[in-house]
Hints:
Layout: E1 3-7, H1 10-20, E2 24-28, E3 57-58, E4 64-65, H2 74-85, E5 90-92, H3 98-111, E6 117-119, H4 127-134, H5 142-169, H6 180-196, E7 201-211, E8 214-223, E9 226-227, H7 253-261, E10 267-279, H8 287-298, H9 302-314, E11 316-318, E12 321-323, H10 338-352, H11 395-411, E13 416-428, E14 438-450, H12 464-469, E15 483-484, E16 488-495, H13 504-514, H14 522-531, E17 535-538, E18 541-544, H15 546-558, H16 565-579, H17 586-593, E19 595-596, E20 598-599, H18 601-608, E21 617-622, E22 626-633, E23 636-641, E24 648-651, H19 663-675, E25 678-682, E26 689-695, E27 698-703, E28 718-721, H20 733-740, E29 744-748, E30 755-761, E31 764-769, E32 772-775, H21 779-784, H22 787-795, E33 807-814, E34 822-828, E35 831-835, E36 840-842, H23 854-864
Parallel strand pairs: 1-2, 1-5, 5-6
Antiparallel strand pairs: 3-4, 7-8, 7-16, 8-9, 8-14, 10-13, 10-15, 11-12, 13-14, 17-18, 19-20, 21-22, 22-23, 23-24, 25-26, 26-27, 27-28, 29-30, 30-31, 31-32, 33-34, 34-35, 35-36
Helix pairs in contact: 3-5, 5-16, 5-17, 6-14, 8-11, 8-13, 9-11, 9-14
Amino acid sequence: MPSLVIVESPAKAKTISRVLGKDYVVDASYGHLRDLPAKADEIPARYKKKDWSRLGVNVEEGFEPLYVIPQDKKRHVKRLKEALKDADALLLATDEDREGESISWHAVEVLKPKVPVGRIAFHEITSEAILAALKSPRDIDDALVKAQESRRILDRLFGYMLSPLLWKKVRRGLSAGRVQSVAVRLAVLRERQRKAFRVSRYLDAEAEFKEEGISFTARLNRVGQRRVASGKDFDSKTGQLKANSDALWLAEDQQVDGLIAGFGKPWQVIKAEQKPFTRRPAPPFTTSSMQQEANRKLGFSADRTMRVAQRLYEGVDMGPERVGLITYMRTDSLTLANRALQQAQGVIQSRYGKEYAKGPRRYRTKSKGAQEAHEAIRPTELSRPPGSLSKYLNRDEQRLYELIWKRTLASQMADAELTRTSVEIEAPLSDGPDGARSAIFNASGQTVRFPGFLRVYVEGSDDPAAELADREVMLPPLKEGQQITPRKVEAKDHQTQPPARYTEASLVKKLEAEGIGRPSTYASIVQTIQDRGYIVKTGNALVPTFIAFAVTQLLERHFSDYVDIKFTARMENDLDDIASGELDPLDPLQRIYHGNGLPGLKPKIASEEGQIEYPAVEIGTDPELGQVVVKIGRFGPYLQAGEDDDRIIASLPEDVAPADFSLKEAVELLKKKDKGPRKLGVDPESGKAVYAATGRYGAYVQLGETPEGKGKKKERPKRASLPKGVSEEEATLEVALKWLSLPRVVGTHPEKGEEILATSGRYGPHLRCGKETRSLESDEQIFNITLQEAVAKINEPKRKGRSRSKKVLKELGDDPNTEGTKVQVLDGPYGPYITNGELNASLPKNLKPEEVSKEQALQILADKGKAPKRKRRRRKAKAK
């Protein structure tokens, strides 16, 4: 009789079954077979009247969880029970972490096997690893199971007890999460810093030189004995000059202009020195660092990275065999197996030479709670280069595998050897501040003496300035005492920059640094706070919404301990201690529910609920309107000034970022709403008045009056959204009637027999024929597309997701750097962006789509990063 092997997913089962052969039956549990009840009808009848049944946890007796088999898992349970009848042993081969251990434990509890049971684990799906695991099965680790169970119960208590408060006091459908709420708070805290930030202007000067055919730039550093203020002299949180700074702050144009006018000749090199230094390679990937680098270099979200990594781990069909290409991808370990270390040295020597092989290098994790898998993320075979897999992988898989392969190889290579050159140049000054008679300019450069690991990989950075600093910069061979003359000296204007919003990469980095979450949870944390509407991704930035502000404000005021960063980190450490057997699982559950030192959730909610007010996010106080706030309504955030009968309410545009929304803008919206819609004239056909107004989704026009009162029987007047770029103030009667005339009947589809309508909606211009819709590329097409063109468009296969047509805002011509591609400004779901078909870059806020030039667009794309290769392989079709 064969042995039954249970794994989590069918893809993993497929790979393992090819290794084990006919003596084993490999099947998938499709994740957990049991869980806490997700809805009321899953609660068994005998528990429904219990006070704790809604929680799914018996808080009265030892926090015993109530596990049920969800409806969609019953067929999997039935299939596995049938397979177990014909098996002589049960082997549990789920992932090597707490979640995997818990899945195996639940499988045993549900299946109740009467045959021998063994737990096998491996961190790579290769023949060698699987066969080695079969030789040493173990028991299920009860401590890991208890740690995972405690996490599940803690999350359930937090979510199910606090979420109802949010439904009552903020809006239905919201939810609180033990870790997600803290992640949202981090984003809100950063947005508050941006709102409090005040931009400061500071100036300096740059001098351009050319010596021995090499051009270089030097920047003003000192005037006399005083250092000129630079970005580091300003407070990063406020934007103002630090109180204890004695730097010379050049804030006015005339200060710098007068300084430049006072420079004499010749200038003299007073210091020139070279210092060698080395750079060590970054360690191999952990879950966190892989998500960060994939976000920086590939533009992948954390969730996308983990989905692609899961496929690479579980196995890819390579002709007659199916192979796992990377080790387990949920880990905070930096260790590499001895076999991998040996392979790395061989590959490095064969590809780059012996001088590049520096190994083996061993890295140690700095994370106190490192507890998941026992090895860093690496290719299962380093001798399998990315190019050899191109015909087996889709584009995402190929790019992520290449990133992992390069990072692993680079981690075992020699240090890069560089030389840093610094030069000080003295400029004579006729009459400077405080009687200064000279100014000092600094220039620096660096050259690579031996590239080492840089031949293969350079780690990315969340700071563009840091990435620029890593570039090789050549300076001419200057000597002390040498006289040189600048070709040009000009003032340089700078502004302090508010703290950058989190990206997915920097938020994961922050969570890891604070000890919040673990490798298996980072991606789900980041994805969940976006799915629930707390965070909107604009470009690469994570922007908290006003809903996030309202929820965070409520939790901070009434449950501050539970959204405290250090408190949440301590809870993670408690779970680690449970996993290692050092802590009783009941301790943290008792503490968070009943309290111990801090008030528990149960008494805290009982005492606070009656005092919780509907949160109002303050915008400011206007002399005329009084206090202006944002509140959360049934249909989203809205503005309010005043109270009761005197209050004024106005819709808040969807794309407003809290830090960028000023009191002035809020007052304008409220006053505009108070005045009512602007009358444009009268429609000659109906005789009804035509109005222009601004609503939640932007400017719109309306035919006729809005009826007073509420009720379904009230006939709503016809409305039409104005195209993007046309404000309420710019609308004319002619423009309004044009858009109110929609939908336009293009004609009848010859095959379907239904009318084809051209119109515009919330997501842009489109065609509609029965239930079929197709996007149009521009607003103009609504009015000039022919029946023949419309029929062809309707007959096209419907595109989904990213492949949908984007509205072209401006054509900028061919891209000289990428053959056969055009540079365009497109209207995306998160705002206008520039693309050359291969690379996308958000349009800076200070540039309007109609004003951007081709040169500016090319520079923005260049700053974004190196474009992917021109040749793009068609994505392999998914198996049905």
